[in-house]
């Protein structure tokens, strides 16, 4: 496989649907290209927070696995797993922003996952912002997460229906606009990771997105 350019993340085809495995050495994940995100939104190295991300895809779903070495855990008390958690970004999370509108780049979807398995899905339209529509939208995403305290590592996986991202058919060569992020620590000492630098503490800079490509 030819290596992807720095602004491209490749998702590898899977012939069938799978459970949300959290072991990177599981056959489902092992062949998937690994992306290593180790810089903050301004492009400065954050080696202690290097996050490894892998992705697979089927005709129906996009799968994403995050491996997150941690220094500390900032977790929401009494997590809720049966419904989305509003303001989840105030706690430790990983995030995928992804869109299929190349003309109106301010329209995209946001998917978040915590070390406890909490999740949040939002339909973003920043021109103008429509907060109530963000709250009501439902993607049908599934999540799973686990904290390995001995290794100081947490793992999280997402399964996202393509129907929540695009109205178009998906197949090899299909490309989406995307960025990947991570937040660790309490708000007053939070540490940030961004795959593609935004030049801002805000992750919502769609002009900075890279691409996610479906490959076989």
> Measured on Cα atoms, how large is the radius of gyration?
16 Å
- How helix-rich are the residues, as a percent range? under 10%
Structural class by secondary-structure content: mainly beta
Total helix count?
2
Question: How does the major sheet shape up?
Answer: 12 strands, mixed
Task: State mean pLDDT (0 to 100 scale).
Answer: 94
Count of distinct strands: 12
Question: In the CATH hierarchy, what is the architecture at level 2?
Answer: Sandwich
CATH topology, anyone?
Immunoglobulin-like
Can you tell me the residue ranges where pLDDT is under 50 for at least 5 consecutive residues? none
> Mind telling me the CATH class?
Mainly Beta
- Terminal CA distance reads 9 Å
Shape: globular
What's the order of the H and E elements? EHEEEEEEHEEEEE
Strand content: 35-45%
Count of discrete domains: 1
GO biological process, one term: carbohydrate catabolic process
Pfam family, one: CBM9_1
Protein name: Carbohydrate-binding family 9-like protein
GO molecular function, one term: hydrolase activity, hydrolyzing O-glycosyl compounds
